[in-house]
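Course assignment 3, question 2. Fill in each field.
Student: A.L.
Task: Predict the tertiary structure for the chain below.
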Amino acid sequence: MEDPRRWEVFRAADQIRAEGKERVSLRTVWARVKLNAGVAGNNQSVGGHLAEWTRERAYSPIIELAGLPEAVETGLAKAGVALWKAAQAEAAAINERTRLRMAEAIAAERELRHEALGMVDARDAVIEAQCNEIAWFADELERMKEHLRTVRARDFWQRVIQEVRDILPEREALHVGDITLRIGADLVQEAEEHVQAWNVDTVRGAIDERIYRKRYFVAEGGGRYRRRRPEDGGVAA
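Answer field:
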C-alpha cells in the first residue's frame, strides 16, 4: 500500500511544477503539503519522498525556470540524468581502480612484511648458530682448562713425591709428620695455587698411593716410611 505522505508530496510537487512560479524545493513542497493536507510531517520524511519524485520526474529546476520549450526541457532533463548516471559510473570506476590500487599496495606491503619476517628468521637462525658455536667453544675452553689443571696437579704431585724420595734417608724410616715438615716451602705454597689441601694426611695419601702401586716407598708401621729397595720388589726409590 502506498504511503499517503508520498502521494501528498508527489501531488504538491506536481502542482508547484505545473504552476511554474517557483522552484520545487523542500521548503515549497512542505508548505504545499501542509496547505493541501493540513499536516506536512517532518522534513526528513518529506525530503525522502521529494528526492524520489525528482528522480522519477527528471526534474531540473535550472532548466525549467529558464522557460525553455517542453521538448527541450525534457531532452535536457534526460541528458542531465544520463550525465548524472555517467558521472556515477565514472565515480564507481574510479572507486574500483582505487580499491584495486589499495589491494595491490596491501599485497605488496604483506609481501615485504613476509620477506622481512623471513630475513628476521634467517638472522635469528644465524644468531642461534653463532650462540651455539660460542657455547661450544666456551665448553671446550673449560675442558681445556680442566685438562690443564689436571696436568699441572699431576706434575705437582710428581714433584712432591720426588721431594719425599730426596728427603728419606737411604736406610732409615721417617714419620710422615717429619717428612711433611721437610718438604720445601715452594711446594707448600704451590699447593694453595692448585687448591690442594696441604697437611700430613694429604702427604700420607700420596705416599700410600705409590705404595699401593709398589713404587718408591715401603710402610714400616706407626706412620713411618722408608725408601723401597730392590729386594722389596716393585720400583725402587
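Instructor remarks: The helical segments are 4-19, 26-37, 43-57, 61-65, 70-167, 176-182, 185-193, 200-212. The chain has a mean pLDDT of 85.
Grade: pending
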